[in-house]
Design brief:
The complex is a heterodimer of chains A (799) and B (231).
Chain A: H1 2-15, H2 17-45, E1 57-66, E2 69-73, H3 79-88, E3 92-98, E4 102-108, E5 111-120, H4 124-127, E6 132-135, E7 145-149, H5 150-157, E8 166-169, E9 173-181, E10 195-198, H6 199-205, H7 207-211, E11 222-227, H8 233-239, H9 243-247, H10 249-252, E12 257-262, H11 263-266, E13 272-273, E14 276-277, H12 282-309, H13 311-323, H14 328-365, H15 376-401, H16 406-409, H17 422-453, E15 464-468, H18 478-487, E16 491-497, E17 507-508, E18 511-512, E19 524-529, H19 533-537, E20 541-544, E21 557-561, H20 562-567, E22 577-580, E23 590-596, E24 611-615, E25 623-628, H21 634-648, E26 657-658, H22 659-664, H23 668-702, H24 704-712, H25 717-751, H26 762-789, H27 792-797
Parallel strand pairs in A: 5-10, 7-9, 19-24, 21-23
Antiparallel strand pairs in A: 1-2, 1-11, 1-12, 3-11, 4-5, 4-8, 6-9, 7-10, 8-9, 13-14, 15-25, 15-26, 16-25, 17-19, 18-22, 20-23, 21-24, 22-23
Helix pairs in contact in A: 1-14, 2-12, 2-14, 2-23, 12-15, 12-17, 12-23, 14-15, 17-23, 17-25, 17-26, 23-26, 25-26
Chain B: E1 2-12, E2 17-28, E3 33-37, H1 44-51, E4 59-64, E5 67-68, H2 74-81, E6 85-89, H3 100-110, H4 115-128, H5 144-156, E7 162-166, H6 174-189, E8 193-197, H7 201-204, E9 209-214, E10 217-223
Parallel strand pairs in B: 3-8, 3-9, 6-7, 7-8
Antiparallel strand pairs in B: 1-2, 1-4, 4-5, 9-10
Helix pairs in contact in B: 3-4, 3-5, 4-5, 5-6
The chains are: A alpha+beta (799), B alpha/beta (231).
Keywords (chain B): ATP-binding, Nucleotide-binding
Protein name (chain B): ABC transporter ATP-binding protein
Organism (chain A): Meishania litoralis
Chain lengths: 799, 231
């Protein structure tokens, strides 16, 4: 029986090649989009799958409240480690302190690399379940040891056995390689951990880290834990909640809340707002999941519409089958088998489309997704996907077609009833509602990106490069390097800073100043800079003056930004002092000498944070900021800068970033969404138009005789075109009226996430309506004009 | 085989109700060949559809082989139709996408017969209808007469008790028409009951009995003396 169904289905496909192409092509496009999105969603959901016990791994997080605003993050103070070990140690199998991920220079013989990694306590590798390829598992036992990832070891040692060899780290100390571990794959946290150095080495080499042992206010570290077998994440999290508050009175005013943030949630649920977890990337998983489902639905609607529109052609067959003994159930099965066949073909084509577009898609989405040929789960899911699509696309036509009464259809005079076309119209409205909403959504996403891109940055990012200086070798050499670079003619100005131009690495509080409100808990972005910082960035001084080498007192001077001026409540900030509120051992007060224009260092969608730029009197920078000579090509400038750099730091690799491209990275996430939703919108429209094209040709075919009669009676081409087009245009107009409020509501919600956002203007909606109508007219006109220009004699003869 | 009493059938549209059959009483015995005649719109096809269980009467009783079938649901009617009834239509009603063999095979598939049994029965009936050499052809590759022979083959392949023919020669030339009527007569002589709707006086002469309908009522019934006179 099934064979018989497939046979008929196949012959029907061959017979109506045009409809079959539209049906299969549209479905294939829809399925390809859904498959790509499906692969992306699976990739997102499988983040951190490298860690077999990820349900037991967590990071210790802290929420603190400043002036009523609660901030949450992984930065914790050193004494918390001891407090957790002493008071709650039973709950943890492993508990380790770790530094932030840092770039360090690793040198062996002539090979010199810049790699990222962490300082960790001894049980770190075990907690991370690292797969040790060579050397010892307990590789962090000795203070002068280093563990390397396989790729780093290969890059550094080539074919040599790295175990026991000595690596020079940032030209400061020599560490012995004790182990090589398998690289942690992409799509996992710690993927960029190329080396691990013992925590004891961190303590030995950094005075500030040693000093932090009792500093509850110095949140500069991380703690990772693996729970004991019998411990429950939620329960332990509750137990440790007030540990800091209970042990330290000084910070209790910020109401510190300590809790465990499970690894399962790091990637997709990592956003906190006012101390509450509010999702994160999961919203994109949902967004694209819904887009995928809708695009597939659009393609299924084409299938439904074209199948039911052609019902008159199949009516006779239904009648015959029923008269010779077919039950309705059997006919439903038959039509479902047909849709199954179409969907299988579409799936094969969709898979090919996915294969061909996967590279481009990976590039766009910054993924490394490969086609899962070997995955049994993939094929099983594909089968379920095919069955569900076949069911969604085929169920309505199957129910509709199988409902024909043989008495009505066998005489060959069957005409579908007055309302038979209504479901089709509703489906077309649904299709265009989705398409129009997609158009509006995409335009608003693009607008929001452009809105943020056009926002004044506050400094000149063109022709500016930043060179990392993560080694103590650079200490004390700023002046020398500045004159060398300026003399080289490749650089017109240079400064140094403790964080990159496009980030804030440090925040501080604990100051008093004249007029500070009682109980005010300040939180200031803190950047240490050289005297030429504003000059090199072309950062405008709006009040007071810039740092000057002529005044020795400027070593204790600060510049503040415009937001900080308001934040600190200073009408006339120039000359005011920021004093350390530590009464026992205060740092010297800092004198405000100028106000600089706000510059965007964090998200371009957020307000600028209140910031202070402090004179770096210890010459302890993290970056050199070089303004390149605009009269020479960038490549010439870079070559000269590299040569000068290498003359002075032969053992340190020369790395640099263009500030404008670093800044551009801030838009990457939104741009990806914009580009992807643009592509999906285009495909959604294409699929809807394919369906409309098929329906128009069907209507034109069905009304051939009517068109002939009308033409004989004097109808012009325009009259016929108008007759055929207006019904579809009406449907699209209805769609617009439904889509506009829905998309306004959704996009308004989306924009609320961005404090610096575009206003949704009326013309966007008008543009979407005009666009949808134009596309409809183009699609419908081809068939309508063709039908209108046909010779009426021929069309009358068809009856 | 067929016992119809006080049968009525009306069609209701939004505005009017049309009485297609009004108080029809009819008996057709096993092995009989009955022709139903009458002008267009008199209710012939409606009566045939009800006899063929494609439609239900509005009122009255219809017993098929002793079972009341008048109020059966579609599902039950389909079950009863299967294997018991064969249809021959004026417009042949072959499925265009199936070959001759596959068209004839279809009722046997619905009866869940095995592949080998289907092959044997289909070939036997195709040979009998002298169309076996065309088994792999599609309907549009055949002449009208050949298509109707395929339709008859499909109607008889399950060896039904009753064949219902709705103007079986209406779309054929006289030579092919005579051939079709001879085939039906042969089947009748072998024991199959036949009820045929026709406009053609010539065709009606093949029947044992001619029932004349007018405005939904049986107005006359006459016995043919010389059955098969045109053979």
């Amino acid at each position: 029986m099934f064979k018989n169904y497939l046979k008929i289905a196949w012959r029907n496909l061959i017979k109506s090649k045009g409809y079959s192409a539209i049906n299969i092509g549209g479905l294939a496009l829809g399925m390809a989009v859904t498959l790509l999105i499906g692969l992306w969603v699976v990739d997102e959901l499988s983040y951190n799958s490298y860690f077999k016990h990820k349900d037991k791994i967590a990071q210790v997080y802290q929420s603190q409240t400043f002036n009523g605003n609660t901030g949450t993050g992984p930065a914790i103070p050193r004494p918390l480690e001891k407090a957790l070990r002493d008071g709650y140690g039973d709950n943890f199998k492993h508990l380790i302190m770790a530094s932030w991920t840092n770039d360090l220079y690793l040198k062996y013989n002539e090979t010199n690399l810049s790699r990222s990694g962490n300082y960790m306590q001894r049980e770190g590798p075990e907690l991370l379940e690292l797969e040790i390829i060579k050397g010892e598992k307990d590789g962090l036992r000795e203070v002068n040891s280093i563990m390397l990832s396989k790729s780093t070891a290969d890059a550094l040692f080539g074919g040599d056995d790295p175990i026991g060899k000595t690596v020079r780290v940032s030209n400061e100390h020599d560490l012995m390689v004790t182990a090589v571990y398998e690289d942690i794959p992409v799509n996992n946290t710690f993927n960029d951990t190329d080396y691990i150095i013992p925590w004891e080495q961190y303590l030995a080499s950094r005075e500030w880290v040693r000093n932090a042992e009792d500093q509850w206010g110095n949140n500069s570290f991380q703690i990772f834990v693996k729970l004991a077998d019998n411990a429950n994440m939620e329960t332990v999290s509750q137990k440790i909640r007030n540990v800091k508050k209970d042990l330290n009175e000084d910070t209790a005013e910020f109401n510190p809340q300590i809790f465990l943030f499970p690894m399962n949630e790091w990637y997709l649920h990592g956003n906190f707002e006012n101390g509450k977890q509010v999702g994160g990337r999961i919203k994109y998983v949902w967004l694209f999941g819904i887009i995928g489902a809708f695009v597939l639905l659009l393609a299924c609607i084409n299938f439904m519409n074209l199948s039911t529109a052609r019902s008159e052609k199949r009516a006779k067959e239904v009648g015959i089958r029923k008269s010779i003994g077919s039950q309705r159930r059997q006919l439903i099965n038959q039509f479902l088998s047909e849709s199954f066949l179409v969907v299988v073909f579409a799936f094969i084509i969709a898979s090919l489309i996915v294969l061909l577009s996967l590279n481009g898609f990976n590039e766009l989405s910054r993924k490394e997704i490969s086609f899962p040929w070997n995955s049994g789960i993939f094929w099983l899911s594909s089968l379920i996907f095919i069955l569900i699509t076949a069911l969604v696309a085929g169920s309505y036509p199957a129910l509709y077609l199988s409902s024909f009464r043989p008495v009505d259809v066998l005489k060959g005079t069957f005409k579908a009833g007055k309302y038979a076309g209504l479901p089709r119209k509703i489906l077309v409205v649904l299709q265009f509602t989705v398409s129009v909403a997609f158009i509006i959504g995409t335009v608003i996403v693009m607008q929001q990106i452009n809105h943020a891109k056009n926002r004044p940055v506050g400094y000149d990012k063109e022709g500016l490069i930043q060179v990392p200086t993560f080694s103590q070798d650079f200490t004390g050499k700023y002046d020398l390097m500045r004159s060398e670079f300026l003399n080289s003619n490749a650089v017109v100005e240079m400064s140094s800073s403790s964080s990159p131009t496009t980030r804030i690495w440090s925040n501080r509080g604990g100051f008093t100043w004249e007029g500070k409100p009682e109980g005010f808990q300040e939180d200031l972005a803190w950047t240490e800079v050289s005297a030429e910082y504003a000059k090199s960035l072309n950062l405008k001084i709006v009040e007071g003056r810039d740092f000057s080498r002529d005044f020795a007192s400027d070593s204790l001077a600060v510049l503040i930004n415009q937001t900080a001026k308001k934040y600190l409540g200073m009408e006339n900030p120039i000359g005011k002092l920021l004093k350390d509120d530590d009464e026992e051992d205060p740092n010297p007060p800092l004198k405000i000498i100028g106000v600089v224009e706000d510059m965007i260092t964090q998200s371009p969608y957020e307000p600028v944070k209140q910031g202070v730029y402090v004179f770096d009197r210890f010459d302890n920078s993290s970056y050199y900021n070089l303004r390149l000579n605009p009269n020479q090509s960038a490549s010439q400038n870079i070559a000269i800068v590299e040569r000068v750099f290498k003359e002075h730091f032969p053992d340190i690799p020369f790395n640099y970033d263009f500030v404008d491209s670093e800044y551009g990275e801030k838009f990457a996430a939104e741009e990806r969404i914009g580009t992807l939703s643009g592509i999906f919108t285009a495909l959604a429209i294409l699929i809807s138009c394919l369906g409309l094209f098929g329906l128009t040709s069907f209507v034109a075919e069905q009304r051939t005789k009517e068109i002939g009669v009308r033409k004989v009676l004097g109808a012009t081409t325009f009259n016929v075109w108008n007759m055929l087009s207006k019904d579809f245009l009406k449907l699209v107009i209805i769609s617009c009226f439904i889509a506009i409020p829905i998309s306004y509501y959704i996009m308004n919600g989306w924009l609320q996430d961005y404090p610096y956002r575009v206003i949704m203007e009326w013309w966007i909606f008008v543009l979407a309506v005009v666009g949808a109508l134009a596309i409809t007219i183009l699609t419908v006109s081809f068939q309508a004009i063709k039908a209108a220009n046909a010779n009426p004699v021929n069309s009358l003869r068809t009856e | 085989m067929i016992h119809i009493q006080n049968l009525k059938k009306s069609f209701r549209t939004e505005e009017v109700e049309t009485l297609a059959l009004n108080n029809v009483n009819l008996k057709v015995e096993d092995g009989e060949f009955a022709a139903i005649m009458g002008p267009s719109g008199c209710g012939k096809s409606t009566l045939l559809n009800i006899i063929g269980m494609l439609d239900n009467p509005t009122e009255g009783s219809y017993k098929f082989a002793g079972h009341e079938v008048g109020g059966l649901k579609e599902r039950q009617r389909t079950e009863l139709r299967k294997g018991n009834l064969g249809f021959v239509f004026q417009s042949f009603n072959l499925i265009d996408e199936l070959t001759v063999f596959e068209n004839v095979e279809l009722p046997l598939i619905y009866l869940k017969e095995s592949k080998s049994s289907r092959r044997e029965k289909v070939m036997k009936v195709l040979e009998r209808m002298k169309i076996a050499h065309r088994e792999k052809h599609f309907p549009h590759q055949l002449s009208g007469g050949q298509q109707q022979r395929v339709a008859i083959a499909r109607a008889v392949v399950t060896n039904p008790k009753l064949i219902l023919a709705d103007e079986p020669t209406g779309n054929l030339d006289s030579k092919n028409g005579i051939e079709v009527m001879n085939l039906l007569t042969e089947l009748n002589q072998e024991g199959t009951t036949i009820v045929m709707v026709t406009h053609s006086d010539r065709d009606s002469h093949y029947a044992h009995r001619v029932i004349n309908l007018f405005d939904g009522q049986i107005v006359t019934e006459s016995q043919n003396r010389a059955v098969g006179a045109m053979m």
